[in-house]
Amino acid sequence: MHISTLNFFFLFYCEQQIWSDIGESEADKDRMLLELERECLEVYRRKVEEASNAKARLHQSVAAKEAEVATLMAALGELNIHSPIQTEKKVASLKEKLASVIPMLEDLRMKKEERITQFADIKTQIEKISGEISGYNFPNDTMISCLTLEDQDLSLRKLTEFQTHLQTLQKEKSDRLHKVLQYVNEVHLLCGVLGLDFAQSVSDVHPCLQRTNQEQSTNISNGTFEGLEQTIKKLKTERRIRIQKLRDIVAALFELWNLMDSPQAEKNVFSRATSVLRLSEAEVTEAGVLSTEMIEQAAAEVERLTKLKASRMKELVMKRRSELEEICRMTHIEPDASTAVEKSNALIDSGLVDPSELLANIEAQITKAKDEGLNRKEIMDRIDQWLSACEEENWLEDYNQDENRYNAGRGAHINLKRAEKARVTVSKISAIVDNLINRTLAWEEEKKMLFLYDGVRLVSILEDYKVTRKHREEEKKRCRDQKKIQDLLLTEREAIYGSKPSPRKSNSFRKPNGYRANGNGSMTPTPRRNSVGGGTTELLTPRSYSGRQNGYFKEMRRLSTAPLNFVALSKEDTISTYTSVCGSELGSPPHS
Question: Which helix (H) or strand (E) holds 264?
């Protein structure tokens, strides 16, 4: 400032000197000084205006940038306490304000661009996934419009909301993809079992389901789910129909195989088809087991065997009739005489009856016989218990007649134990018979029919058995009393005339009747058959009664065990006793 003042005075002095040298008047000098002063003021004024304009522009620039900063901070949701607006009073010049605003503005602009990019990416993913779920896929090169500053909230809170929504959609997409995969796998399994084209089945739902390229998005819309569900439902219905059809065919196959006695190798050909019988619907998963080829092959085999059966029908009828007779024999039921062997042969030979109808009739009789056998099972079990007791009674009677039963030999203790058990069993025979009669009468009352055993009413057999058993007990008691009298007479005779060898003792070394040697060397009693003309009464069991009263039954229809309806004393023992007694009486004087 000092140098400028000196320069001003120096120039003013020079100008005064020049004006003096020229000879300018004082008025001219004053006039020129006024002009000079006016020109200086004009220059000053212009400079001040330029400075004012620069200040205004600078102030406007700072205000604009501060406004932009405020707008960006509001959009980004940021709050900076050190912003230029809040520190305006602390900063002296506008240039300092501008210098502090520009870096912050640039930073906020970069944040805005990054935030817009994040929103755009998230929005693209949201719109794409939403489109997939709704059924309208967006191509990968679709441009999503950028978010504008005026109508978008770029705050972290809004970004978090978008991200949360995107994660929800991604999870829903993952669940839907998993569900679609499950449906597709189920369709693949069902198509494999039914022998259908998997690719065609899923293509009918949506073409993208069979594509393997990654560029094509898998359709996960509700329409795809509905289509897959309908396809699965249709395939399951078809599977159920084919399973039932194949089971019917396989059942017919088994029936024909049993009738025709087909070899195992022939059956093994259809092992895959027959496996359907023992599996539930959900367990049938083998590929091709329900294909039309498999079903047609099994149906063709049924047709072949049916034709073969027609040529062998007579043989099959005889075979099934034999089975019926065997079932009736085991259950002691009277077989239906309408399908007897002789009558069936005559009907088939005469051509009056279709062999198929006759075979079906026999099959129905077999079923009826099996059902009747189940209804009679309780009574039959009690009959077996009774017959077993009768068998033990016969064994005990033979055992009691053995004079050497108490000898100490190998196996004697086994027979003693069996005899003890047999006595307990024999003591229960009367109660067993009475209980069996009551059970049989209750059965007849319930079924409204008679209980027949080989054609004879069981109650009649049991009543006859009770009467016969009573007569036999009386006969045994009479024989015991008579034997006591004979022993008394024999004792008196020996006292008078001396002892004499008894015919019974002379034969004591013969083999006991009804006994055989067992494996350990001991003598085991066996049941004895009734001798013709024996002096005792025969016990009537179902086995003896049916053979005697009903001449229609053959020997093959009796029980497999031998009849056990014998008395305690044989004919030889009775005659021997009478001979010994009578012989001694003839050779001795009358007893007074």
Answer: helix 264-268
Output the CA–CA distances (angstroms, integers) from residue 231 to 194, 237, 241, 293, in the order listed. Answer: 13, 10, 15, 22
Which of 468, 466, 377 has the alpha carbon at shortest distance from 429?
Answer: 466
Can you read off the two tokens belonging to residue 97? 């304000």
Reported as a pLDDT band with limits 50, 70 and 90, residue 583 is very low
In tens, the pLDDT along 201-239 reads 777 776 666 654 444 456 777 778 888 888 888 888 988
The DSSP call for residue 561 is: S
Instruction: List Cα–Cα distances, 317 to 260, 307, 348, 370, in angstroms.
Output: 11, 15, 9, 18
The answer to whether the CB of 562 falls within 8 A of the CB of 527 is: yes
pLDDT at residue 92 in the model: 60
First to last CA, the chain: 200
Give the CA distances from residue 387 to residues 220, 443, 541, 566, 580, in Å, rounded to whole numbers and listed in that order.
77, 20, 8, 13, 36
Q: Where are the beta strands (DSSP E) in 502-586?
A: 515-517, 523-525
Strands (E), 382-455: 452-453
| Cβ atoms < 10 Å from Cβ of 4 | 7
With CA atoms as reference, report the closest residue to 305 among 343, 249, 360.
249
- Token pair for 16: 């005064």
Q: Is 500:584 a contact under the CB 8 Å cutoff?
A: yes
User: Strand, helix or coil at 552?
Assistant: coil
Average pLDDT over residues 315-344: 87
From residue 430, how far is each of 268, 443, 476 by CA, in Å? Answer: 56, 20, 17
Q: What are phi and psi of 517, to 5 degrees?
A: -75, 135
- For residue 168, give Cα distances in angstroms to 131, 135, 244, 386: 14, 18, 45, 81
Residue 334: CB partners within 8 Å, gap ≥ 6? Answer: 328, 452, 454, 455
Sign of CA dihedral 256, 375, 547, 529: positive
Q: What's the pTM value of the predicted model, to 2 decimals? A: 0.44
pLDDT band at 51 (very low <50, low <70, confident <90, very high): confident
According to DSSP H, which parts of 498-549 are helical? 503-506, 542-549
Cα 163 to chain centroid, rounded:
46
Are 239 and 285 contacting, i.e. CB atoms less than 8 angstroms apart? no
CA–CA gap between residue 182 and residue 175 (Å, rounded): 11
Report helix, strand or coil for 59: helix
